[in-house]
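As noted in the main text, all predictions were made from sequence alone. Below is one such record, for Aspartyl/glutamyl-tRNA(Asn/Gln) amidotransferase subunit B.
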Amino acid sequence: MAQYESVIGLEVHIELKTRSKVFCDSTTEFGGDPNTHVCPVCLGLPGTLPVINKTVVEYAIRAGLAINCSIAEFSKFDRKNYYYPDMPKNYQISQYDLPIALNGYLDIEVDGETRRIGITRLHMEEDTGKLVHQGTITTTPYSLVDYNRAGVPLIEIVSEPDLRSPEEARRYMEKLKAIIQYTGVSDCKMEEGSLRCDANISLRPAGSAEFGTKTEIKNLNSFRALQRALAYEIERQTEVLEEGGRIVQETRTWDEGKGITLPLRSKEFAHDYRYLPDPDLVPMIIDREWVEDIRSSLPELPDDRRQRYIGEYGLPAYDATILTDTKELADYFEDCVKAYPNPKVVSNWVMGDLTRLLNSGAVDITGCRIRPEQLASLLQLMDKGTISGKIAKTVFEEMFATGKEPGVIVKEKGLVQISDEGAIVAVVDKILADNPKSVEDFRSGKERALGFLVGQVMKATKGKANPDLVNRLLKEKLQ
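Prediction:
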């Protein structure tokens, strides 16, 4: 591999979160029985005319500004002609030579190095229908067509071929997803198809400036699939080149089960689509004042929020990066800090116990039963000495499972910390009497013996004794 360099560019399709489709008023709601979210316009019936949804244009501008694009003053729609069962009109309304946004970029960080990835363009288009294969795409005996998704508004974001590894491609996608989610124009749910990716990849001799022959991998719908497919394709192309073969320009599909890419069709070129301006849609002149109004309404984006967490909250860069990865997690964290103004303590709980429980239960932060003010109440109980840190973790798990208030759980389960010195002294005296060997070990300089004795006291009190008080009393008795 050292003799070859991979050159990767991504085409990311993002479904916009509008109530109605891009050229008609049919619903964009996910799901539903096949072919029930349709009308004559999105079915391409004769005599129908498309009408642009203004919110789609606004969302496209909003996304374009967030990824540092220039917004065009003049933009138009085109017909992309090709024949496929999921295309009711036999053409797709898209944008070709005059897209809505151009020349943007994203900065990504991989292995401590920051790289700027260019963005060629962002354009609007309508989604196609969905083929339901009776098997895999390469083996199915027949397929069914569901047009519910036909006409759902999309933006396509095309990167420059600036990515050099599967890891960089994954990080670019993660960063792009976070930014788009922050803008509110899409939910980016990959499992529902609202964020999909096509990857173009070629190899060239290390040090060469000339691109090799590329292949395109279609419809990668997870970060893991993207990274694995690119890694496989690099391996496959390397073997072909080393055996003296040549790479064929083609479109390939990713087989998740087998972990390989498979040929799908020969790669088309722009002229194969016979692009032509759509005669049913007038060109758009984008008002500059409107663009600036949209720019001023943009929320604080991930990079700015990350820097604020470092500067304002004093968090380490690692914490700030994780916490701002999604808008929902960042909002949750900030609501917790408002109720309990100790950002680092809150960060530790959110990134530690909360993230662990969310991952183990496959739950998103938006479905978390623990409200920010409840986490603050738990931390306050620790500060007051009502419960210990160990008990707090037990209470936290119960809160996550039930959504109950921490005070209620502590009361129901009798978990109030014992801070009565007299009560703890009695237990300490018994533990010291029962463990003369550990007492002797400590007095002979073996500090680890103290930890054992503390553990015995905590065990005897079922974890309820105040650990600071236990440590102090043991040291006083031993000395």
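Residues 4-292 form one domain. The chain has 15 helices and 16 strands. These features were considered when defining construct boundaries for the mutagenesis experiments described in Section 2.9.
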